[in-house]
Amino acid sequence: MLASPCMTDLLRPAPPDKKTDRALRARRGAARLRLLAWPVYFGVLAWYVDENGLPYANDVVFCCLIGALVAASVHSGRGLRGSLLVLRDWVPVMAVVWVYSLLRGYGAHTPWPVRFEPQLSIDTFLGGGETWTVRLQEWLYHPGRPRWYDYAGVAVYMSHFFVIFVTLAVLWRRDHGRFRQLLAGYVLLTYVGFATYILYPADPPWLTSLQGHMPDVTRVVQDLLNSSGMPRAGSIFENGSQFANDVAAMPSLHAAYPMLLAVFFWRTANRPARVLLAAYPPAMAFVLVYGAEHFIIDVLVGWAYAAGVWYALDRFLRARRAKRERRAGETSGEPAGKPAGA
């Protein structure tokens, strides 16, 4: 029995609705974007590293982080809205750090004399008649024949340009409140250090040595980076940059940032994390002193600045939180600190 024309029409699939078709195409496009987000990001990053070496400059590091956060946002399905949130929170941070970098370069031209005598005297006393930079290089450094610990030292030194920013990016994704707290500590510590550079310009050991005030020493990290063959790997040490400031040695922010991370995370860290937090500041300190980048006193002052900044900021945040709770208690008619309904 043949189906009638009416029955044939009923059995034929209905033509897709245009609105539904557009929605399906949009979903397929979004799915493709989610799959491509990370491959595109890592492809661009690999191209940059192949052409220019490791991204160490603040602006490039921030661009890499922003790109990673945008890729993570697209991959998770947040799309344009998530990407705009990334730009909203991170472009101002990038601007603040860029302004610091610019001011740091201008800070090399201060009306005050550059100091080296107090740092040299303190380090000579601590070294029993010779600075620890000289002693460590006499014992450990072999020009032209780097050892494993030299390469490890380069990795520790270069972590200064990545670790705190990556940590901020992870907190931004997982705990926005903690992100704001660490960011406040980082910015405050950075600008307090900058103010000290202006008021107390200080020579590092390698520059003190070049001026003939102490025995010859080598900038170990620079030496290894320049001989690595990696494109532009050593350019962070080039002179003449508007961001360069060879007399920004007191305090050592290279030493201060690891200490800031240690005091920031210590209360909530588990035992393995505390081992890393406790090891990072002395490891960085060793590299800075051994590599002739800072005197010991620069490192100790950097640690003190980090602890002091976080202590002051933590007290401020606690006081503000207590004030907010008191106001909330007054609004609800409950005594301050007493749970509602108790």
From TrEMBL:
Q: Give UniProt keywords alphabetically.
A: Membrane, Transmembrane, Transmembrane helix
Localization of this protein: Membrane
Q: How does it sit in the membrane?
A: Multi-pass membrane protein
Origin superkingdom: Bacteria
Per the record, GO CC terms? membrane
Q: Which CDD domains match?
A: PAP2_Aur1_like
What InterPro entries is this protein classified in?
A: Aur1/Ipt1, IPC_Synthase-Related, PAP2/HPO_sf
| Inositolphosphotransferase Aur1/Ipt1 domain mapped to chain residues | 133-311
Membrane-spanning intervals of the chain: 31-49, 55-74, 86-103, 148-171, 183-200, 247-266, 273-290, 296-317
Q: What is this protein called?
A: Inositolphosphotransferase Aur1/Ipt1 domain-containing protein
The major lineage groups are: Bacteria, Bacillati, Actinomycetota, Actinomycetes, Kitasatosporales
